[in-house]
Amino acid sequence: FGDSLLHISEVDAIVENHVPLLEMIPPEPKPEDETIGKYIAEMVPDGATIQLGFGGIPNAITRYLMGHKDLGIHTEVFGPGMVVLIEKGVVTGRKKNLHPRKNVFTVALGTRKTYKFMNDNPSLESYPVSYTNEPSVIAQNDNMVSINSILEVDLLGQCNAEFLAGSQFSGTGGQLDFVRGAFNSKGGKSILAFYSTAKNGEVSRVVPRFETGTVVTTPRMDTHYVVTEHGVVNLKGRS
């Protein structure tokens, strides 16, 4: 459902394949994930549309959203935690301005249960990334809340989510698209979450400035809320 189909006229060849879909099992949340998840859940109002990344922190957040009502989904990655929210009736999509009562995504990663839930499910709509991640599209849903992970932040408010120990750690992904889209949504907010330290507390992830060559994923002028296990700070408009 959505806009994820190819017409047969666009296909040159079809190769039959019975390889099982790749499973991505999210890690069990650590204590820090649980604390961060609680902070973030308190920032999500009833009726909000949410975007979640993949991993321990997003998995923890879904546990603390169970008491929420009428949430909606407009996300890049659809994963196991979202299945639980839909099944429990937390997600209804009833308050969405765009695609009401539909859960919009562009890629899905999860377990066998995730894929079984998705199969022929009319509540799910998949669209090209050029649509789901377009900030002007994201902003059309009121109270849009984007929730993503980063690796470190400097005292200017710049956030790095892809560069670690001098090497590329991950891709850019749609983080900045959703940061900007959520901020421009009426009542929206973007949240970037991470552990405050690494290596058992020996290395701070809040640094005076990034090392030369470090990639900036979210520029300082776009950073909104930053959350660690120690609390929440709003950096928007701060110097």
UniProtKB/TrEMBL annotation:
Q: Name one GO molecular function term.
A: acetate CoA-transferase activity
Q: Which residue ranges does the record assign to the Acetyl-CoA hydrolase/transferase C-terminal domain?
A: 110-239
Q: Known SUPFAM superfamilies for this protein?
A: NagB/RpiA/CoA transferase-like
Classification via InterPro entries = AcetylCoA_hyd_C, AcetylCoA_hyd_C_sf, ActCoA_hydro, NagB/RpiA_transferase-like
Signal peptide from the UniProt entry? none
- What does the record list as GO biological process? acetate metabolic process
What Pfam families does UniProt report for this protein, alphabetically?
A: AcetylCoA_hyd_C
| Stated name of the protein | Acetyl-CoA hydrolase/transferase C-terminal domain-containing protein
Lineage at the top is:
unclassified sequences, metagenomes, ecological metagenomes
